[in-house]
Each structure stands twice: as C-alpha cells, then as structure tokens.
Amino acid sequence: MYYDYMLVRLGELTIKGRNRGKFENLMLAKIKQALTAYERLTYEKSYGRVYITLNGEDADGVSAALRDVFGIGSFSPAVRAANELGAIREAALAVMNAHRPAPATFKMTVKRAWKEFPHVSQEMNHLVGAHVLRNTPALKVNIREPDVELKVDIQPQGTFVYCTVVPGAGGFPLGMNGKAMLLLSGGIDSPVAGWMAMRKGLEIEAIHFHSYPFTSEQATEKVVTLTQRLAHYGGRIKLHLVPFTELQTRLAQSKQDHLIITLMRRAMLRIAQKLAEQRGALALVTGDSLGQVASQTLGSMNVIGREIDLPLLRPLVMMDKQEIIRYAERIGTYETSILPYEDCCTLFVPKSPATNPNLRVVESVEHELGEELNRLIEEAVAGTELVVMTAQGREGARNAEEDRWF
After folding, report:
1. pLDDT reported for residue 13
2. What is the CATH code of the structural domain delimited by 179-402?
3. Domain THUMP, which positions (predicted)?
C-alpha cells in the first residue's frame, strides 16, 4: 500500500496549557531529529498532532524511527484525500483492499473534526462503509470485534484514511523537564531507570563508578555499551567514569563491614551531587527497587538518601524484578546487562549487610574518617573521565575538568 502521510498524535503534551505551543515546537524538533535520514519529508504542525508528508520515503522505515521518540502517543500511516465524499470513499476502499492479511470483518469509524464538512460522522459511517462493502463482497461488518477498524479523520487540511494505530513511546519530549544525573551500574535496573527518566522529558548524563584493578575494563565497556543503547533514545549522552578504588578501599578499612554498602552508596551520592552541580542537573536518578537488596530496604534508602540535597528520583521503586526485566528487553539493554562482568558494587559485599542502618552510627563512622573522606571524594570528582556517546558509538573522551562540549 502506498501511504503518503504519517499522522502523529502527541502524548502527555496535550495536557499542557498556555505554554503548550512551546512544547509542541520542541516535539516537532525531536521528530525531525529522529527522521534526519529521510530528507524528502515535510512537516505540518497542528493542535496536538504532526502531519508528515512522506514524499515517496519508506513508510516502514519512518514508522520504525518514530516508535522510539518520546512524547508521541501514537501514529498512523495514512492516505490523504480531498474533503469530498467521492475522494474519501475511494481512499477508504484502497486502504481496505491493500490491508494484509485481507480481513474478513471490519468496523467503520469516522471523526468529523472539520465541522463545515456537509455530512456528520454517523452519516459518513454509512456512506463510506456501504461503498467499501459494495466493492468488497467477501467483507462483513462486525462492530464488536472487527479484524480491522477503518478510520476516517476529516480535518480542515484534508481527510486522512488509515486502519493502523501504532503505539508510541509516550511521555514528554526529551529535555522538556530539565536535566538529571543517572547513576548507571552494569546491571539490569539502572538502564531502565534512565530510559524512564528520559521518557518523562529529562535529559540525562550518566555516572559510573569503577574500581580498577578490582573491576575489569570489560565491566566499564559494558556500561559504555549500555550508554550507547540509551543514546539511541537520547541522541547524545555524556558518561562520567568516576575512579572509586581508593575511596572504596578506605571505606572497607573502617571495620564496619555490615555498613560498608551504606557508606559506599552515601559516598557515591555525594560525588554524584557534586557532578550534578557542575553540569547544571537538578536531580539524581537511581535504579532502586524497594526491597530488592539490602541497600534498597526502606530503612537503607532513608539513611542513604539523607546524604544529599538534590531530589533523588527512583522510577523503579514499586516495580518487581520481572517487570523491570520486561522493560529491559523492550528497550534493548537486557542482553548487555546480564554479561558476567562485575562492577564495584559487588566488591567487599559483607555476609550480613545492614538492612536497617542507624543514621547516627553511619554519621559517626563518616565523622571519624573526617577530612580524609572529603579529600577522597574531591579526588574522585577531579579524576572523573568524561565520555560522550551517541547511538553510533563513542564520540570522544577527556578529563571532566577539560570538558568543552558546552
């Protein structure tokens, strides 16, 4: 079937008020960015929608690119007809005849958004549906469970006829709601948390803590690959590689084995907050899921989260593991996440980690470390390496203090 249009419906963006136009312009820019490979496309923005004229470009290729654009509620490959009954009838018949596999039943649905059209929606259902039935003898009407729902959308700029509605990624256009820093491990959870943050309109930069020589280069490359996959949705993502060996080793020497995970994660949040302040980010994002491990009990999350002032966003907090795995498979991170390369979070794990740590005891241990802890945190921040990833791979790398990508 030769489709000449792509009808794109915006998602949560439609709830916006007076500033809606600004967000619709951002959404149009993100759609164009996702479709740069298709040079002949032209675009028209309308209330809550974007109409893309294909001009001979491949509809399947355009559809595949649109599926991963945040802010799109759904879209449909469509045929455009003039706002005239005969033209609409012929377009509807052509769409139905081209549908594969050939349906046995159908339902007719007409939406008359342009009120100057001479026939109301219910009348058009009969006028168009009867024409399709007369010219397709094997086809029957089934209102409740049709094989195909043939849709006719009458707009001021023309009538769009289609029978496929493809779900979009939903959410808000990337960057609409600010910037956050994602604590990205090599596991299953944090990449999903990053994808969910981007879906809600957050631009993200990723932070990964490594502990050479205790962790391998493969473990870091695994995170680089995960960042590359997230860049498929985000366009371009900065990855901050934080050296954590000295700090982690010093915490392990504090003789507080049951608190080592709590102390380590509090230190990570302090480092992440300092990087966020440098990068103009207003929140931190983690892959915490309530009760999944010792550091993710409510008591642990309470003590760990008190270390920072920035909002700590936990998109997965109420999800179970199987739900998270399904998301990881859907976004294409699962196979990389399960590769057997350990990150620094698996080092020095005690046999009995605290699941309900005492805040005063934790603060007392940190106080004893004093300026040494502060120094190690500052050194970790200063030694952070910045890698810029796109969907095609590594764009560049340099020390964070020498970053000139802004």
Report:
1. 66
2. 3.40.50.620
3. 60-165
